[in-house]
Each structure stands twice: as C-alpha cells, then as structure tokens.
C-alpha cells in the first residue's frame, strides 16, 4: 500500500474508537476493526490516516495530477474550496495557489457564503454526518462549483447496512470520549447507499475510490 499524499509505504495502526461509541453505532467486531483502520492507520512518513490517503486519490483524479499529491499541489491552478479541515490534507491544501478555506462550524455548509460557479473543486472530510440537512449541504457544494467541477469527500461508512439518522436514537458524538461539542454531534450514520446523496443533490456522476476496502472510501462527484 502506497500513500497517495507522500508516496510512503509504511503504516502504523492505532485504536481510535471507544466502547461507548462502538455500542452507540452498534458495530460488529469486523466493523469496529475497519473503522479503526479508516481513522487510525497512519502513514509513517506524513502521518495521514487511510481516509485522508484515499481522499487524496480522489482529489488527484479531480485535479488531473499524477504522483504524490504533496509534490503536485503547489503547481495546481484550480480554484479549490476546502470546507472544514480535510484531515491531514489541510496542511497540503493550504499551499495550493488558489485554495480557499471555509472553517466549520463558523461557515454554514447548508448556506455557503460563496458565489455560484466559483470553484473547480470542493473538498471536505467526515463533516457531512454532522450536518442537519446533508442533501442541502451537498446542493450548496454543487452550486458553488463551475460546470464540470468536482466534489471530493469522505463520510464514515458501514458498508453492510443502509444509512440512518439518529433523531430517535441516543445522542452520539465523534471526536473523543466525553466530547459533547455541538459540531461533533452525529446526525447521520452512513451505509452502503451513501453514494445516492450527491445524485439527489444535483451532481451528474459519482465515483467511489477505495483503499483497503472497506476501510478507506472516498467519493468524487462531478457537476
């Protein structure tokens, strides 16, 4: 396995899920293992976890670059909007000449303060599950993209079930044990139908990128 960000080939594993979150999400041992890998298996060279590495592959495809992303990003001319910090990619994206950062939750993803057709690429990572109306948020991403533009993003996904909202379930938070921040509250838990949302929001095509399936999944939706 090679890191699409830096080209490194060594990875280490750390456990990131805690018992209460595993119980709230009703995860099997197999599901717990691959979500731990998604969030806690890191490149020894650049520190990126699997979700950032597979997101970088989707981003490279959207930008049309080859080779490690950190070597190519500085010469990319595309206008990029990063919503929330896109995992380990945030530091690299900040070096892109035409990158704009929209801090979450200060910037409302359901009502982006940007003109229509302003960007070539929009990127976000593990943010949509905290948004009250994810279809509206994705439609906003579509609105600010130029025609032919691309959205690259990740959501934590359990592939053996369908997506569900937590409205009628106990409150659950991502982040760290005991973290009760409003922006870490989980609204949606994503399953195998996660790819339908960008189509419902107005995108024309969706590609799914995989790394050590099902640990690493990222989507690239085109307007």
Sheet with the most strands: spatial strand order: 4-3-5-6-10-9
CATH C-level category: Alpha Beta
Report how far apart the termini are: 31 Å
Biggest beta sheet summary: 6 strands, mixed
Q: Provide the helix percentage.
A: 25-40%
Regions with little confidence, pLDDT below 50 for 5+ residues: none
- Work out the count of structural domains: 1
Shape: globular
Q: How many helical elements?
A: 7
CATH architecture: 3-Layer(aba) Sandwich
Annotation, overall tally of beta strands: 10
Radius of gyration: 16 Å
Structural class: alpha/beta
Elements, N to C (H/E) = EHHEHHEHEEHEEEHEE
Report strand %.
15-25%
CATH topology: Rossmann fold
Provide tags for this entry.
alpha/beta, Rossmann fold, 6-stranded mixed beta sheet, 7 helices
Characterization of this structure:
Helices cover 26% and strands 22% of the residues. The protein is of the alpha/beta class and 223 residues long. The relative contact order is 0.16. The protein has helices spanning 19-24, 29-40, 50-63, 69-72, 89-93, 134-144, 196-200; strands spanning 11-13, 41-43, 80-83, 99-102, 119-125, 145-154, 164-165, 188-189, 205-211, 216-222. The protein has a single domain (11-222), classed as Rossmann fold. Strands 4-3-5-6-10-9 form a six-stranded mixed β-sheet. A two-stranded antiparallel sheet has the order 1-2. Strands 7-8 form a two-stranded antiparallel sheet. The model has no long low-confidence stretch (mean pLDDT 94). It is globular. The two termini are 31 Å apart.
Map the helices and strands.
Blueprint: E1 11-13, H1 19-24, H2 29-40, E2 41-43, H3 50-63, H4 69-72, E3 80-83, H5 89-93, E4 99-102, E5 119-125, H6 134-144, E6 145-154, E7 164-165, E8 188-189, H7 196-200, E9 205-211, E10 216-222
Parallel strand pairs: 3-4, 3-5, 5-6
Antiparallel strand pairs: 1-2, 6-10, 7-8, 9-10
């Amino acid at each position: 396995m090679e890191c699409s960000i830096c080209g490194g080939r060594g990875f280490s594993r750390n456990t990131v899920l805690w018992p209460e979150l595993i119980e709230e999400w009703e995860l099997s041992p197999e599901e717990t293992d691959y979500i731990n890998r998604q969030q806690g298996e890191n490149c020894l060279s650049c520190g990126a976890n699997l979700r950032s590495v597979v997101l970088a592959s989707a981003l490279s495809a959207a930008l049309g670059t080859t080779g490690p992303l950190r070597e190519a990003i500085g010469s990319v001319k595309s206008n990029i909007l990063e919503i929330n910090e896109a995992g380990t990619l945030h530091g690299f994206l900040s070096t892109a000449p035409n990158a704009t950062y929209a801090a979450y939750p200060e910037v409302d993803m359901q009502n982006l303060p940007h003109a229509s057709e302003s960007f070539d690429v929009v990127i976000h990572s593990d943010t949509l599950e905290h948004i009250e109306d994810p279809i509206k948020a994705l439609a906003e991403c579509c609105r600010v993209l130029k025609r032919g533009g691309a959205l690259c993003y990740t959501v934590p996904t359990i592939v053996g079930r369908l997506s569900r909202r937590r409205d009628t379930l106990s409150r659950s938070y991502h982040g760290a044990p005991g973290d009760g921040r409003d922006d870490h509250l989980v609204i949606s838990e994503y399953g195998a139908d996660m790819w339908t949302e960008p189509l419902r929001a107005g995108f024309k095509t969706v590609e799914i990128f995989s790394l050590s399936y099902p640990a690493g999944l990222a989507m690239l939706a085109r307007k």
